[in-house]
Amino acid sequence: MISIAMATNRSAQRPNGAPQTKVCQFKLVLLGESAVGKSSLVLRFVKGQFHEYQESTIGAAFLTQTLCLDDTTVKFEIWDTAGQERYHSLAPMYYRGAQAAIVVYDITNQDTFGRAKNWVKELQRQASPSIVIALAGNKSDLAAKRMVEFEEAQAYADENGLLFMETSAKTAMNVNDIFLAIANKLPKSEVSTGGAGTRVLNDADAPRASSCCK
Amino acid sequence: MEDDYKFAASTFFAKNHPGETCGSNGLPLTPSSITILGRSQRLLQIEHPNLCTYLDIIRGKHERIIVVAEVIGKALAEYTTKFSYEEIINIATQVACGMKLLHDGNIIHRTLSDDNILLDSNGRVKLFHYGMYYMTNEGKEVPFPLGLPRYFSPEAIIGGGGPSADVWAFGIIILELCIGKLWNNLKPSPTMRRILTLVHSNNPAERIAREHYALDAYKEIPENIRGIIEKCLKIYPSERATFKDLHSELSSMNTRTPSEIKPVRGLMGCKLQYLYHWWQLAGGDIQAELKKSGLIKNSPPILSMPIAILLDGPTIGGKTGALFDRRIAKYSLDLLKNRLSHIPPSDFYPLMHERRRDYEAMALPKIIRERDTEYQFYRLLWFQRLLHGYPYTAQCIRSEAEIDIPPLVRGDVWAALLGVLGDIETHYERIDKETPTHTDRQIDVDIPRCHQYCWLLCGAEGHKKLKRLLKAWLLTNPQYVYWQGLDSLTAPFLYLNFCNEARAFACLTAFVPKFLHKFFLKDNSAVIKEYLAKFWQMAAFHEPQLATHLHDINFVPELFAIPWFLTMFSHVFPLHKIVHLWDALLVEGPSLPLFMGAAILRQLRDTLLDSGFNECILLFSDLPEIDIGECVKESIDMCRSTPKSLSYRRFTNEPEIKDPMVRYAYITYLNTFICKIIIYRDMVEIPMEILLNEVCPRISLSDFFSLICQDKCCVIDIRSNLLYEKSCIEGSINIPYSGVHLGQHELKSLGPQPYKVLVEAVKMNKIIVVASAEDGTAQLVRDKVFDFIKILYKGSPSRFI
Question: Which keywords does this chain's UniProt record carry (chain A) (predicted)?
Fold first, then answer.
């Protein structure tokens, strides 16, 4: 019923490759404190892999993945951002114009949850008003060292109208599910014909003029 | 015959962590073999006449560790004849000398015994295997007990003991040399029981002798030796002598001056580390030899399977921990001797003033040269000479490093290239690397992800060192902050100077201002913007077609190149590639990275030209295999063929270009073929906004004139006829701006004469300069002419260099 297809077929992304079914393209951004597992979540979702020693992300990384829902093909263009606070000023370049965001925290670290809340606030204030935000409490395989209670995060998510799941990139728990939940919640009316990646930049001003590292 | 053997290997298994246990951070526990590898690096640095030099620690399959070390002669245990007292004093003196060095360095031997004290026919003594206890973290990382029971001190048996336990063992060994083997044929536990009963004795040495019915022999021992033995065999560790005292006492007793050993000349006179390295290059294989001599035995896996595995992880039965295999396999250097037998003796002593020879291997790629025995032989000897003369040979080292750097001395050469000098140890020692700071959390989460495929960097030892280095650098550079990526940048220096943190630190400290000036400022946006803009201009200059394409699809370097430059590619490539990139970087200077970026683009060029925005960004998020040798070569070519002022950056630590003409005139380049002159009046610096919007770099007038003098450029003057006639650059052609029809797409539309000149210029690979008095029009014309060139070269894009 629901399957995940690897987005390796490059021609499928070509503007001229007219798709048969309805194709929706969405820009999704991952935000959160460093070392909470943003890159690991994406890697698990896109390639089904997990690296214990996933290296830190500098600037941002870009990956795509296609989900097949019943009648639509949803293609995610995923921007995986750097977590370190110093790279904060780069973030707007990536979340501006995004239709979805996953804000990630580490359930074994209360501070990362606080940082996640700040990201949600910033998105609510500055990102597109219709953005779908999901909150992911990652590293649920380390439940023994839990510092953030599920109920606490769930309550926060309900208050702010966020999707919420506890995930584990290591065990793959809820990883596909959270992306699916986002795909289901996104409006499918707008059918784009590819090349939406360029929109990233159009929306983010001329990149040259946009802020770089600060 | 025995002197033929130069080094030996022994092997053992490190402890296996039970099941799939994870540390508190959710990461797997560091394998014991990695910990051993990290700790043993320090041992590799020890050089002392009475200690066998450690040459290599190899990590094999299934937590196997192979230790390679120097050997001489044979072990005391193998000598069957009794030693004279004179000989005993000689042996004891040298052992004490070696032990003193170990204890000075806080290394406890713990396994001192008669089978790891080596003696050769010249009376030289060297300790072997002295690092077991240290490298295995006091035996915690191995499944077997360390040491021989009969040399255990009482406190060591009950699980305690520090350095003074070694003094006890030393005493037992001398006693054995005097009165014969002790507790012979006794099993470990009775032996240890016997030792423990000594605690009530006032004079354990005498009591041991009595127990062995050797009291008479004991009484015969000369007073001074007996004194030494009794000072060692004290029950209370605090009462025992130290090796410092023992050594000075023994030295005064030692009548035998070590027989003058003539320094060996030729191959065998070379540094042992070099010999081992060349031996490996010549095909020497430690593991294969160990298998041959039966020290590594492969048993069928079924035999090592556990009998039962419990649900929560632990296993029962199967292969149980064996005792430490004390056998060693000795190796001779015949293989290497044969390989290098044709080399004339004089070549072992290269003279500095002689012009270096050209070797056949020089034409081969670096990676192959690094594996060539003979080539490395010559290079290493040569570099050894040069490094010996540093800093006076700095220039010479630089010009040799331009060819290549032998991997074995890369750390030394890099330090020389970076101008590291002076008492770096004391300086580093004084820096507070321990006090917690608020950056610690970030450093702590980054280090376990930094180049962790590298065995050195992934162990606890590596993590500790990297953290100290980062903290030291941040503390001594208060103007800078920790940006993620600084860890990756530090890693290559640590990797090459694993046991010399001070030098790693000194290298990093010298590297940053040279290559990454101001990159680690809290607000580095201007610096990075300028760098990326320059990179884009260099790419456009050398790869105009590609640059236009990327420009068209709105693909900007901000999206992918920040980690490239912020970390000088150390976050992008694995260490074995970084070292080659940086070899070139350190020699060529701070402009090279811009061209390295361009060279990477060039390698991906065909794919990029065929790709849209998404494919391009995907390509950079998961960078395909890059041929680093090619990339280095191309980038150096580009760097050298680009006039210096083109890659000029404001944020640099380089001495400013003292060129009066720069102040008044800049010429804007478009690409290899097309440039534009704009005469700026009263303008010293280009404002940032302008720079960021320029596709092409600017050139200083002097660089421009030198191009004209060398007939390397073709100038198109687009001012009006009138102005052109008044004054113009010799040889320039005039295409008045007003005469250019923007709608036209044919180069011919510019007129027959300009067409001819331009085609000719393009053929000759000349740089085409568009000269005008104002900015805007030149911009338009450059776009136009660029279009023409594009059309002209549609069919043969390879012409864009």
Answer: Endosome, GTP-binding, Hydrolase, Lipoprotein, Nucleotide-binding, Prenylation, Protein transport, Transport
